[in-house]
Every structure is written in structure tokens, then in C-alpha cells.
Design a protein that fits this description.
CATH superfamily of the largest domain: Transferase(Phosphotransferase) domain 1
Distance between the termini: 25 Å
Oligomer: single chain
Number of strands: 13
Structural class: alpha+beta
Number of domains: 2
Largest sheet: 6 strands, antiparallel
Strand order of the largest sheet: 3-4-5-6-8-7
CATH architecture of the largest domain: Orthogonal Bundle
Helix content: 25-40%
Strand content: 15-25%
Radius of gyration: 20 Å
CATH topology of the largest domain: Transferase(Phosphotransferase), domain 1
């Protein structure tokens, strides 16, 4: 059952590939799709159901590309398992629309948190966020082949009430191929994307390090990063008295316009952040409530797997 704008009404039952799901309420919408809070009927667990929406204004080839990206994101997420990544429970077609059922992540994005705070965050808080992000990016970068996230920014990071950060949008992520000189598409966000991500240049794990530095800069200054500009020494500490020279130096190194001058990998950057923190880091994920199992003990779905 649909409501205005072709949205699914509360209490609508959707049959998936693994289970059936009852729509509870709309929680978000964007250019490619909508996200609902849904209950898995077999065990009552709460999930986020992301459905690709038809886009009448797009040419057929553009719709086909959007569909390919949607399914690519879903398949990529389903292949991964890490505390800072959402769990995928189901992937199927509903009324010819690709649909992804993934972990419902309560909380707010770092961008929303920044808007609420309307002020720079304290150094210790941001260092903890940076360490969490280094760890999940290192997990992605050490896959075979490596996965480059390519769109790290505050709006793509959820902060749960338990303090755990979760990456929530893999629409731009890609695998790294050493033999390639250029990416097939150039995507990302101005201010957070490094120089090599413009003009379809080849990205590698160090591209995510630049975006991580830009994200931490935003959190420490409450100002969006200027595209293709490395902060000058003293500029961050002038805006945030809690930031010392060592922390500022980490941001500057991460955001060097030359990838060869950045940290070699996220492990090296994490170690630098740990030194700035000056005390053992206790990862919130270690004591956080685990998500529901991807598959309930008893399932009754027979939906169709989506095709790219």
C-alpha cells in the first residue's frame, strides 16, 4: 500500500528474500531512494529498509546506472563485517524496485551534531572519532581487493547514543586496482575530496586519509573545509584553543595535496592520533549493544534477488 508521492504506508507488509517486513515509518529520503523503519516479522527486530524510487525525470540509461550503483552498494555492504559498518539483513526486489534491509542505526550524523553544537568540538572528543574512523577505513583498505570509501564527510557518519561511529553511505565506494590509472567515475564531495579525485584521477587508500583529515578539520573548527586547500600551521589552533600543535600537524599531514606526503595508511594515522590523545583509547564498540542477527532463526521470505 502506497501513500502520497508513492511512499509506503505504515503497516505495509513487504516480502523479502529472507523474511517479511512491516513498514513502521519514513525516516529519510534522497534523490535515489527512501528509507523506512521496519519490523522484521519473524522476530520483531527493527531494521532500516532502503528502497530505490523511480525517477521519471531521468533518461533510461541514467536510471539503469542508478540501479547498478544501488545494487553495488548493497552487495558491497553485505560482504563486509565490522562494528563501524551497518549489518545487511536482506536484498530483494519489491514491485520491481531494488530494496535493501540494513541495520537501523539510532542517533544522528556528525553533521547534525555539528549544527546542534554550533561550535567547534573539543580535541579529545574529535581524536576519539578519528581513531574509530581510522580503524574502519583500515578494515576497508585491507580487504582483497582494497575498498576505497571515497566520500567520507560528517553527513555520512552516524553517531549512536553509545558513542559508536557508523559509515552509512557506500554509493561512491570502489575497489582499488593497481593497474588502473583513472577511475571510471569521479564522485565525492567538494572540500573533502582530494585532488586526485577530481577529473577521474585514480584514488587509493590515501584519498580516504585526505577526506578523514578534512572531516576532523570540520569537527575541530565548525567550518567546512575549503576545497583543495591544506590548513596552514596555526590556523586550527586559532579557531579552537583545545587543539595543540601536534593534533594540528596530524590534520595538516593528512590533508597534504600530494598523496605521497600524507600518512602511508590509516594505521599510521591512527598511531599519530593515539599519541595526541595521550591516554589509552577505549573503543565504544567494545561495550555497545550488538545489532540483531542478519537472519532470524525462522524465516519465511521468498522475494526475488535484484539484478544490476
Amino acid at each position: 500500500m502506497a501513500i502520497g508521492g508513492d511512499l509506503l504506508a505504515p503497516a505495509t507488509v513487504i516480502r523479502g528474500a529472507r523474511d517479511t517486513y512491516t513498514i513502521m515509518n519514513l525516516i529519510g529520503r534522497g534523490g535515489m531512494g527512501v528509507v523506512y523503519r521496519a519490523r522484521r516479522d519473524s522476530d520483531g527486530a527493527i531494521w532500516a529498509l532502503k528502497e530505490m524510487r523511480p525517477q521519471a525525470e531521468l533518461a533510461p540509461e541514467d536510471m539503469a546506472e542508478n540501479r547498478r550503483l544501488f545494487v553495488q552498494e548493497a552487495e558491497l555492504l553485505r560482504s563486509l563485517s565490522y562494528p563501524n559498518l551497518p549489518v545487511v539483513a536482506d536484498l530483494f526486489e519489491n514491485d520491481s524496485r531494488p530494496t535493501l534491509v540494513m541495520e537501523y542505526v539510532p542517533g544522528q550524523t556528525l553533521e547534525d551534531m555539528m549544527h546542534e553544537a554550533n561550535a567547534p568540538l573539543l580535541k579529545t572528543q574529535v581524536l576519539g572519532y578519528g581513531i574509530q574512523l581510522c580503524r574502519v577505513l583500515n578494515y576497508l583498505h585491507t580487504q582483497t581487493p582494497p575498498i576505497i570509501y571515497r566520500d567520507l564527510k560528517p553527513s555520512n557518519v552516524m553517531l549512536t547514543p553509545e558513542g559508536v561511529l557508523k559509515l552509512i553511505d557506500f554509493g561512491v565506494a570502489r575497489t582499488f586496482k593497481k593497474s588502473k590509472q583513472k577511475d571510471t567515475i569521479a564522485m565525492g564531495s567538494a572540500g573533502y575530496a582530494p585532488p586526485e579525485q577530481y577529473g577521474k584521477g585514480q584514488t587509493d587508500p590515501r584519498s580516504d586519509i585526505y577526506a578523514l583529515g578534512a572531516t576532523l578539520l570540520h569537527l575541530l573548527t565548525a567550518l567546512p573545509p575549503i576545497p583543495l586547500q591544506t590548513p596552514q600551521p596555526g590556523s586550527i589552533t586559532a579557531l579552537n584553543p583545545s587543539v595543540d600543535a601536534a593534533t594540528e600537524a596530524v590534520i595538516i599531514k593528512a590533508m597534504d595535496l600530494s598523496r605521497d606526503q600524507r600518512f602511508a595508511d590509516c594505521k599510521e594515522m591512527e598511531q599519530a592520533l593515539q599519541r595526541c590523545l595521550g591516554q589509552p583509547f577505549v573503543d565504544p564498540a567494545l561495550r555497545a549493544t550488538p545489532p540483531p542477527p542478519a537472519q532470524a532463526p525462522t524465516v519465511a521470505g521468498n522475494g526475488r534477488q535484484p539484478q544490476p
